[in-house]
Design brief:
Structural class: alpha+beta
Order of helices and strands: HEEHEEEEHEEEE
Strand content: 25-35%
Helix content: 10-25%
Largest sheet: 8 strands, antiparallel
Radius of gyration: 19 Å
CATH superfamily: CAP
Number of strands: 10
Oligomer: single chain
Mean pLDDT: 81
Distance between the termini: 53 Å
Length: 167
């Protein structure tokens, strides 16, 4: 049996740590599906406590099973509900709101990639690039975080049930 050269233990440790971090590249955890204190699947009371009453409210006819049936709009923020009370998607278009690990509208694409790694799905349509980070452990990206960028700058962030842009 051969022994490793002196100092190689440190190198092996660094490589193993890098492998552990890479396993979760391109995904988000349950603690990252939030905007401020409001999390995916919170109820209307949590939304009201965090953001107050909406500027406008739009009931949506549920066209697809599992689709949204109510949307509350705020300045730079939309909260979509299922069954009238469960928050299934939060869409942010203003830098005053922080998402997940502190990501904000106006951040550079390079910064997103530095914090979250390469996305599981990436698509460019016209001048917009979509980055999808699905919920850890899910086979498909229907729940997670969607980042929309133009000119390498984040313009919209969505957490929760994702819009279908990868069809």
């Amino acid at each position: 049996m051969r022994s490793l050269p002196v100092g190689s233990g440190l190198l092996v440790g660094i490589l193993c740590a890098g492998c552990a971090l890479a396993t979760h590249a391109g995904t988000v955890g349950p603690d990252e599906l939030n905007v401020g204190s409001v999390r995916y699947l919170d109820d209307t009371n949590a939304v009201l406590r965090a953001f107050g009453p909406p500027i406008s409210r739009q009931p949506n006819p549920r066209v697809v099973a599992g689709g949204f049936d109510d949307t509350w709009s705020y300045s730079g923020l939309r909260v979509r509900f299922y069954d009238g009370w469960r928050c299934v998607q939060i869409e942010v278009s203003d830098s005053q709101y922080s998402v997940g690990r502190g990501l904000r509208v106006g951040a550079l694409l390079a910064g997103v990639l530095a914090v979250y790694g390469q996305p599981t799905y990436r698509r460019t349509t016209g001048d917009t690039t979509y980055l999808s980070y699905p919920f850890k452990g899910r086979a498909r990206a229907y729940v997670g975080m969607l980042v929309k960028t133009t000119a390498d700058t984040v313009r919209v962030l969505e957490v929760g049930q994702l819009t279908f842009v990868f069809m």
